[in-house]
Structure formats: structure tokens, C-alpha cells
Amino acid sequence: MQQPLSAEYRCLANDVILVGVANRPSDVEELIAMNSAAVSVTGAAERQCASAPGERLTWFRPTYTHQVISDDQVIHGYRGLRICLLYTPSFSASYLSITWLERARDSIDVRMKITAMLPEQQAPCAQLGEFIKAVEEETLGGAFEPPGTQVHAYLPCPPRFSCADLDEEPPTSDQPLHQPQQRPAAKLSVKEALMRAAESGAASLPASATESGCEYVVRYADLAGDAAARRYHAGVQPLVMWLIDNANYINPKDPGWHLALLYRKQPADTPGKYRYTLLGFTSVYHFYHPWDKTRVRISQFLILPPYQRMGHAIQLLRAVYNVARGDPNIVDVTVEDASDEMTRVRDLTDLFDLRDAGLWPTLENTARLDQPTVALIQQKFKLCKVQINRCHSVLRFKHAKESNDASVLRQIRLHYKSALYQTLMQHRAQQDATSNPASPAREVTTVSRITATTAPQPMQIDEPAAPAAAGSVRAMAAAAASSAGGGLSGLDALIPVKERTKLQLQQLWLVSEQDLADLVAVVQAKTA
């Protein structure tokens, strides 16, 4: 019987794998040496290139390896294992270095697992010299030209910049980051502000702004119609398996898929040529919307770890917005299954764009957005209605906090409290209907109808008494039942009220069992 392997023959895959891009020939030996020395991911963003001071080495430790190695993210059967996976700047070639001190007989084949995730044209080079030669051809001569069309450009970010602080104001594409933007002093109507709003980005920067030699650019490509873009995407697509949980490969031949690529652009050694360093990318799907329109959905959004928290995610998302805002047939831009980090980036980007258009004062002082206002904002900024309401709520809360307006804060608190209760009740009703199909459907639909008819409108909520006296509850119910649209008209369908429905209504309205009985009695007498 075979003995189980000891702990020293089990390695955490996230700690022993290094993935990097060799932007210079000297980066190859340096990255392999770092991996052999077991350099941790701590301080990876500050790791500088030895041959080019001021430039960062592009490397990271994987966040997720269960999609490539094993479900428990553990490599069994090796002691002192070190794995280094390197790419050329164009991702057309790779090199896989695997070393260990000792290997057990029943160990897993790590090389086979990693090679299986790579595209056929990106099979690892057999010799290190062959890989270094490929890097030299792409970097020193400036032979690599990224696919797609340039749609956005901006200047380098200062090291102190971070999107974590709302006080930090990212620039427009034609303004240096160290020059803060001025907030418009005049209060404009939504229509006036939209008419005066400048374009949020530019495809290129003036020559005077790029004399230092470095700029950041975003290129946009149609995967189905661009063979070069498909080949490049096949090379960068394996990166999502290391950094995005539950990631899946997309079908690049689907005519709806597009690719936005973010690069650092620098002059190459050959005059007139440039070196491109990949910082991140996102896959975008264009799908049909009724009445011959198109809706854009962001699927995979990735900024490589050495370049995170520097404002690049906002600029990449803004580039996608620029493409959408330049096409009148695109209705809005949405995000598929957004993570918490992506939600934060999206909120900040949308809020900054609304600020630059001079809409903050108007939205802060508007209790509830009407349909024409929402339609104007959606048409100009390509934001979906849910995201517009979300940004409006953020600005309302910001204004209430700054002005110390207790009444507005109370309205906001009750609005979200009501929304949470409504969502909870609908979820419970769906669970009950799924777990007990034999239960009467009328009871579930009745609760849903009452939840919808009695849900308070946004920013127009009165705080309920908890708990109220029986007399006041009767008076409230009588007044509500006698007035048109009082919100209690659905109770007549609940008489007699079932026990489970009683509990649901008590949780929804925050009333006691006696108060609920008084409410039912008043409505029953009114409808008799």
C-alpha cells in the first residue's frame, strides 16, 4: 500500500507559480531568478526593471489556480517546486520553466496541465535562447504592432494616485493628472448641462503632451472581423484563468465580441517605432436590442496586478464608453456579473463623468428623477436606468451628509430599508413556491401584489411607528382605506388572513400581530 505524501511534498500553487511578460530581453533572466528565489507577491508593484530604471516588471502570482491545476489549488508530489511562465510582448510565444528539488513517483504532471491551457500557436519554446530571441525581435526593433484602432489616450499617472479616495480626481484624456479639474459653479438644468458637456475622451493626445515619450493608449478591435485580433486574444485569454474566478473562454468568431486593450506606449530603439506593454484588457459583447439598436455588455475586465490601483481601470472603462457614445445605435453599456471591485470602478467612472458634465448640483438637489431626465442622461452617457438611479442615490447621500440634512438622510434610509424588505419578501415567496409546489399560487401572488402596491416610493417615505397603539393603527388604516390609492386595497383578498401570510406582512410593515389584526378589521369593515 502506498504511503501518503508528507507535507513538504505539497505546494500551494498560488505561491510557486510566477506569470510574467518579458518586455525587454533582460527581463527574462531577472524574472526566472526572482521565481527561483521565491520572491513573494508583496511589493510586486514596486519591483523595478534593473536594466530600465523607472519601468516596472510585469509579473504576478496567480490569484486562482483551481481552474488550471487542481480544485484545492495544491500541487502534490514535489518538494521545492518553482514554475515560471513567461510571454513575449505580443503573446505569440511563451516559455515554461519548471524546477524542483525532489519529485515523488505519483506526482501530477504540472507541465501538461499548464500547456493544455495555452493556445496551439503559443506552445512553450523548447530552448530559453529561442524565447529570448523572440523577445529581442519584438522589443528592440519595435516589430510588434497591437491590433485594433486607437480610441483613447491619456498621460501617465503619478505614483500617489489611487481611485480608493474620492478626493483624488482623475483627469480627462487631454489633461495632465497633476492639474485638478474645477467643478462648475453655476447650477444648470439637466438639458443645459448635457448641451454644454464636452466629450469625455480623445483618441489621441497633442504632440506637446507626449514629448516625454510615454503615454497610455486603448485600442478597440472587432474579434470576428480581425484575424490579428483573434490571434492576439488567443494569447492573452489564458491570463483570465489565473486572475478571474470561474472564468470561461469566449468564442472569438461570434460577431458580437470585441476587445479593448490597454497599453503603455514608449519609443523603441528604432526611430519611428514604439514598444507596447500590456496593462489590461476587457472583452465586450454587442448584442441586439429592440428597434434595431445595440446594447453593449462588458464581460471580462482585467488589469494586471502590477498596474492596479493607479487609475487605469477607470480609463479602460471610459474608453469603452467613448466607443458607445460615438455610436447613436448603442443604447447603453452594462456589466455582466460585476465583482465588488468592478462595481466600485464603474460607480467612480460614472460619477466622475456626471461631475465633469456639471450634473452634480442638479442631481444632488433632485429628490426623484423623472423619466425625461433619465432618458436624457441615458442618451448622453450610455448608462442603464439602474446605474443612473444608483449614481443619483450616491449623490443624494453625499449631499445629505455634507449639508447635515437629517430629513433627507431619513428618507434615504427608509427608501433602502423598504427596498430590502421588498426584495426579501419576493425571495421568500419564490422559495416557498419552489419548495412547496402544491401550495396555492394565489397566496404567493397576493403577497407579491401587496408588496408592490404598498412599497413606498423612493425619497417619499414616512417612517412607521414601531409599534403603534391600536387606536392610532385603526385611524391610519381607516384613513388609508378611505383615500384613493391608500395602499391597503389588496388586503381584502387576504381575508381571512392565513398564518404564514400574517408573518410576512408583519415583517414587511414592522407591526405587531395585534396591529395587523386591527388593520384587517378596518379594511374588512370598509369593504363589507
Keywords:
single chain; 528 residues; alpha+beta; 6-stranded mixed beta sheet; 4-stranded mixed beta sheet; 17 helices; 14 strands; 17% strand
Q: What do you see in this structure?
A:
It is a single chain. 32% of the residues are buried. With 528 residues, the chain is an alpha+beta fold. The radius of gyration is 29 Å and the shape is globular. It contains 17 helices and 14 strands. The strands form four sheets. The protein has a six-stranded mixed sheet. Strands 3-2-6-7 form a four-stranded mixed sheet. Helix 15 packs parallel to helix 17. Helix content is 39%, strand content 17%.
- Report the β-strand fraction as a percent range: 15-25%
Amino- and carboxy-terminal Cα gap? 82 Å
How many strands? 14
List the uncertain runs.
41-54, 158-191, 193-201, 440-497
Q: Percentage of helical residues?
A: 25-40%
Give the CA-based shape. globular
Counting DSSP H or I runs of 4 or more residues, the number of helices is: 17
What profile does the largest beta sheet have? Answer: 6 strands, mixed
The strand order across the widest sheet is: 9-10-11-12-13-14
Quote the average pLDDT: 77
- By helix and strand content, what is the structural category? alpha+beta
The radius of gyration computed from the alpha-carbon positions, rounded to a whole number of angstroms, is: 29 Å
